[in-house]
Amino acid sequence: MGAEYNPILAVDSYKASHKWQYPDGTAHVSSYIEARTDKSGLEVPGTLVFGLLPHLRRLADTPVTEAAIAQAKTLFSAHGVPFFEEGWRRILDRHHGRLPIEIRAVAEGSVVPFSNALVQVVNTDPEAFWLTSYLETGLQRALWYPSTVATVSWAVKRILLEFWRTTSDAPVESLDFKLHDFGARGASSAESAALGGMAHLVNFKGTDTVEALLAAAEYYGEPMAGFSIPAAEHSTITCWGRDGEADAYANMLRQFGGPGRLVAVVSDSYDVFHAVEALWGGKLRQQVLDMGGTLVIRPDSGDPVEVVALVLKLAAKAFGTERNAKGYEVLNPAVRVIQGDGITPRTIRAILERMKADRFAIDNIAFGMGGALLQKVDRDTFSWAMKASAVEGGGLWRDVYKDPVTDQSKGSKRGRLALTRDASGVWRTVPVETCPEADNLLRPVFRDGEILSTPRFGEIRARAEAALREP
Fold first, then answer.
1. Quick one: which H or E segment has residue 465?
2. pLDDT at residue 236 in the model
3. Burial 344-365 (b: 16+ CB within 10 A, else e)
4. What's the longest Cα–Cα distance across the chain?
5. CB atoms within 10 A of CB 438
6. Distances from the Cα of 447 to the Cαs of 37, 121, 223, 451, in angstroms?
7. Rg (CA), the chain
8. How far apart are CA 64 and CA 347, in angstroms?
9. Is 393 annotated in some ligand binding site?
10. Binding residue per annotation — 300?
11. Angstrom distance (rounded) from CA 460 to CA 471
């Protein structure tokens, strides 16, 4: 926390002893990273790969230094594990502190079926064979979290697309603002908020996570990746007192309303149903209509399915609806609803199922997701792993693998690997010897301390969006 990044120490302690555990004569170790299986229950076809570039930038910008070696030597000595000072000094002296490795990866934004190699890592200096697996901690951490958040967010967009197709005749681009990131305060750190929030923005353009905007600009060259609107919180409403609830709402309309503008107002500080029926739909109805923009009513407690259903019915009664070409009701453009409490992919589906049964189009609602988006994920959500699959010594490559009898799901791949996709769209991990270089989708992204690929955010979004349209 606050300490300067040291690439030697971005590691699990036990890695420090691994140099002495390889067979004599080992010169190269090739490892791969994969998301093995879907344990989320989201039934997604694969993982949306995202977030490797920030880590590569860190590796490129932070070569090994004399000070880093000294710090590591002192720490590991006190910590009780050996330190391979000679090896790190070779990297400093021979490679000017640049890590002698090559990293290949599938293009960010790709949605790749589970149990495929997504990244492959190999050392480029034969005397640094131990470095490949040493880097596992940082590489896995850099990839599994943003990729998992991006995949969860993408899974929600699939759900939204399903209901858009059946209930809406609005442009499909309207889905870009249907899931808003409310997760900054619930993230475990500012870095998590930046990485996870940025991962969400691969699929959507609504966010309140400012760190994500900064990260998308810094790493992927996106000047403004997401947008928000003025919105109330309970403190700004309740400070007017219960008797002043209508005045608090009227103030929001005066301050932020206007033609073409949106303003979100949390409306459950006391009684959300009374607020919709008697205040928004009664005392303030004409002010809502006259402002020329859109009031977004936000319930924030209770059963999300039941509360949203009743709020929509009350809003429809107060402001009216229009039936679209698919036979579903759309509220007066002056009013919409956003549900941000208790939102997960499952509750989103449940709310939309209820809305569909009640003949309300998806146009009427947006969702805010916080902890379930940025925090309720872990490495096991999609079973991420990095494993050695081949070693070389004396000019000969040899397959290595694990195959535990106690858990076949933890078996690993063997050999040097390539990732391909045929004309019908089927992804396969194949031996690299059988794959022409031009067909290998694991492309070099980092070699000997230099970044070889710098994808733009728009490219990543386009890949994710294209995958969404696939059968």
1. helix 457-468
2. 98
3. bbebbeebbebbeeeebbbbbb
4. 84
5. 5
6. 29, 10, 28, 7
7. 26
8. 47
9. no
10. yes
11. 20
Element (H, E) at 368: strand 365-369
247 labelled binding-site residue: no
Of 357, 330, 380, residue with least CA distance to 349: 357
**Is 243 annotated as contributing to ligand binding?**
no
The predicted pLDDT at position 1 comes to: 47
CB 369 within 8 A of CB 376: no
Amino acid at 468: L
Q: Is 439 annotated as a binding residue?
A: no
Domain 13-147+377-468: CATH superfamily, name plus number: nicotinate phosphoribosyltransferase (3.20.140.10)
Residue-wise pLDDT tens digits, 221-265: 999 999 999 999 999 999 999 999 999 999 999 999 999 999 999
User: How far is Cα 434 from Cα 238, in angstroms, rounded to an integer?
Assistant: 67
* The predicted structure's pLDDT at residue 13: 97
pLDDT at residue 382, as a whole number: 97
**Structure token pair of residue 460:** 């990543």
Which DSSP state fits 3?
Answer: P
Is 12 annotated as a binding-site member?
A: no
Q: Is 208 annotated as a binding residue?
A: yes
Q: Is 266 helix (H, G, I), strand (E, B) or coil?
A: strand
298 annotated binding-site participant: yes
CA–CA separation, 408 and 97 (whole Å): 40
Is 333 annotated as contributing to ligand binding?
A: no
pTM: predicted TM-score of the whole model, two decimal places: 0.97
For the segment 132-145, what is each residue's pLDDT rounded down to a tens digit?
999 999 999 999 99
End-to-end CA distance of the chain: 44
The DSSP code sequence of 307-364 is HHHHHHHHHHHHH-EEE-TTS-EEE-TTEEEEE-SS--HHHHHHHHHHHHHTTB-GGG
In 168-271, which ranges are continuous DSSP H helix?
A: 190-200, 210-220, 234-238, 245-256
Say if residue 234 carries a ligand binding annotation.
yes
Q: Which amino acid makes up residue 359?
A: R
- Regarding beta strands 335-339 and 294-298, do their DSSP bridges make them parallel or antiparallel, or are they unpaired? parallel
Dihedral (CA of 370, 375, 376, 379) sign: positive
Q: 3-state class of 374 per DSSP?
A: helix
CA-CA distance, 153 to 171, in Å (whole number)? 20
The pLDDT assigned to 409 comes to 82
Alpha-carbon distance of 388 to 408, in angstroms, equals: 17
- Measured CA to CA, the distance from residue 39 to residue 409 in angstroms comes to 12
CATH number of 229-374: 3.20.20.70
Instruction: List the chain residues with pLDDT less than 70.
Output: 1-3
Q: How many CB atoms lie within 10 A of CB 233?
A: 13
Strands (E), 78-125: 101-105, 111-112, 117-123
Two tokens, residue 103 = 């990293």
Q: Where are the domains of the chain?
A: 13-147+377-468, 229-374
